[in-house]
Amino acid sequence: MITTTLIIAIIFLFIGIALIYWINRRKFYRRNVAGLEGFSSFEASVFIRFIERLGKWLAYTLILFSVLLFLLYNSEKKRIVRQEHKTEIKSNRSTTKNN
Q: Structure pTM?
């Protein structure tokens, strides 16, 4: 369970960063010498910009979700370590009582 959370968080983080990189790269290569974005038509401009905006929001959501999964992984790991420490203390107490 814990390692699955970590793996999913890493995958979501990678996908989010790659998506932002890909969108920004496409936007960069669409620019002409004057620095303006070149589109074949007005409709293409509106549609592509809308899809890119949705893609960036999706990427930001994936990155935020991956950060939350990292925090969840960290808290679960700490909880397990604390629980193991408690059981270790209880077992040490019981062995000292028996001696």
A: 0.78
6-26: b (≥16 Cβ within 10 Å) or e: beebeebbeebeebbeebeee
Sign of the C-alpha dihedral computed for residues 51, 53, 54 and 56 taken in this order: positive
Pick left, alpha or beta for residue 35 (phi over 0 → left; psi -120 to 50 → alpha; otherwise beta): left
Q: Is 72 exposed, middle or buried (0-12, 13-18, 19+ CB in 10 A)?
A: middle
In 3D, which of 21, 23, 56 has the Cα closest to residue 37? 23
3-54 pLDDT, tens digit per residue, is 899 999 999 999 999 999 999 999 999 888 888 888 889 999 999 999 999 9
